[in-house]
Write a structure and sequence with these properties.
The chain is mostly helical. Among the domains are: about 1-100, DnaJ domain (Helix Hairpins, Orthogonal Bundle); about 210-270. About 80% of the residues lie in helices and about 0% in strands. The protein has helices spanning about 5-20, 25, 35-45, 50-55, 60-75, 75-190, 220-240, 245-275; strands at about 210-215, 220. It has a two-stranded antiparallel ribbon. Keywords: Chaperone, Coiled coil, Cytoplasm, Nucleus.
Amino acid sequence: MSDDNNKDLLRFAAEYADQNVELYELLGVDALTSKEDIHRAWRKRSLKHHPDKAGDDFDASRWELFERARDVLSDPSARAAYDQASKAKLLRRQEREAMDKERKKFADDLEAREGAAVRLRQEKEQRDREVLQKERERLAGEQRMRTEEQRRQAEAAQEMEDLAEARRRLKEKRDEKARKRQAKESMKASMGVGKPAGPDNGAVNVPGDYIANLGDVNKKYWELVCDKLRAVQAVRNLQKQQVTAEELQEAEEGVQEARRRIHEAEAKYQREAAAF
């Protein structure tokens, strides 16, 4: 075999090894197959690719590959170069695969550690949320207790205020009855006449239809009494509401004004009765 032909076989051996072309598998042999068996395997495997057999389906490149596989594996130096290059290529691939496995293992370990860190952080955040929720519930419970206590205290204060108001009203009624009795006795003693017709309202027993001409006011005595009752009720209503001190003071001044008019009417009636 010429040197040029040997160089071509060595070049083909290197190219096929680099391109991962499996020459042994192509011919159906292995690394221990002899040269004679390689030729027999070539004739058997390449027969269907022969130009006379393939006809219109003849593939020149495929036929050429079978011939070069035969020549490379039949030549000891070319075969050794192909085996050596294939083994080196296989070794590099195995090294890359091993490195890829190491990288994958490192990536998996890193991912596992990151996942564990994420789970720990999530668990901590969950515990923190639970602690925060419990604290909120505790504070809400304390706030409800304070609100309930304030409500009870407000109700107790209101009951005390209502009781004081009831006692004040009862005292006013008793005082009013005492003034009326005193007025009756005073009228009887000063006038020496029987009881005039009309309701008992003030310190002096004045007939209800008595017209009290008090300058800017010209009303019957019973109308003045009604004005006072309405003014007193207005004050009581305001005391139960959330009103300003000015509004309450204005209403109380209305009560005082109504009482002043009744007093003036009673005094006027008493003067007129004494004149007869």
